Amino acid sequence: MKKYLDKLKKNNLKITSKRVAILELLERSGEALSPEDIRNELAAKFEKVSYPSVYKNLEDMSRIGVLAKIARPDRRLYYALCRAREDKHHHHIICSKCGKVGEVEECDLFRRKVINGYRITSHFLQLEGICSDCGK
Amino acid sequence: MKKYLDKLKKNNLKITSKRVAILELLERSGEALSPEDIRNELAAKFEKVSYPSVYKNLEDMSRIGVLAKIARPDRRLYYALCRAREDKHHHHIICSKCGKVGEVEECDLFRRKVINGYRITSHFLQLEGICSDCGK
DNA sequence: CCTTAATTAGAAATGATTTCTATTTATACC
DNA sequence: GGTATAAATAGAAATCATTTCTAATTAAGG
To answer: Which of A37, A38, B3, B53 has the fewest Cβ atoms within 10 Å of its own Cβ atom?
Structure first.
């Protein structure tokens, strides 16, 4: 958490309770969440949470590289903690029934620099399935 | 072009002048275009072109696999002709600068039945990068 | 041709995101 | 610790890509 807050300071973004709560939520969940998801979670913790400040915080924090912004075919934007340094490269798989999220490390796209003439700048992989509990 | 029209027929989509014009436009441009781009191009050719039918055509044709739908961080949807061999599993990569779309066949996830205990039901992979022309 | 179901245009609605503005708050400096 | 000030915030209203609704038109099979 400290390294994210340091990065905020370094970029002249103040350490506000809302920003800390957003970062903690994204760290805890490990998923890409929508602004609406995030506002709803924060609403349980704070008396007042406005959409504009949630949107602005997500945008500001992704601009400085603390968060990753993800575009999906539902035309909504999703945000996830950018864990650039730590951990292994991975993606998430979501259980269609219970919503449980697991990690998928079988992805070697991050090693590829060029595919079919394109120098890759980003890739987004999303998996859906039935987890072992629900599949019994 | 014929193979696209055949696929429309096979899926009970009629061969209308608007659909043909959309396919020709996408084939000619080779890029992923927005519904707005497409409507504007068509407006030069037809007296009347409504947004709802452009949107519906793009959605219908991507549903049956003739077009690929691409979500980008500007929160708009883009559509490109799906040129890969029909039966070959593939994904798409879009150039961040010029919008050119290429096919990516290096994906072996579709062969995996189970990952990390999850029985996979679907996966979505989207790549972004700089194409060879723009990278010069 | 004729019939019928699909397609279309236009107007209005939708809903995620953004803008605007006045108030509050974090932080640098004393 | 107190204060100035620039950033952050909430709430109301606006924006704009996309969708819904409806009646008129059209493709395609018989």
So the answer is: B3
> In this structure, is the CB of residue A19 within 7 Å of any atom belonging to strand C?
no
Domains of chain B: 2-129 (1.10.10.10)
Convert the pLDDT of each residue in A48-70 to its tens digit: 999 999 999 999 999 998 988 87
Three-class SS of residue B2? Answer: helix
Element housing A119 (H / E): strand A118-130
Model pLDDT for residues B11-31, shown as the tens digit of each residue: 999 999 999 999 999 998 877
Cβ of A73 less than 7 A from strand C: no
Q: What is the pLDDT of residues B84-121, one digit of tens each?
A: 655 567 787 888 778 787 888 777 776 677 888 888 87
**How would you classify residue A64: left for phi > 0, otherwise alpha for psi between -120 and 50, otherwise beta?**
alpha
Nucleotides of D under 7 A from a protein CB: 7-13, 17-21, 26-29
Q: Which residues of B touch A112 (CB under 8 A)?
A: 106
Nucleotide nearest to B71 (CA to C1'): D17
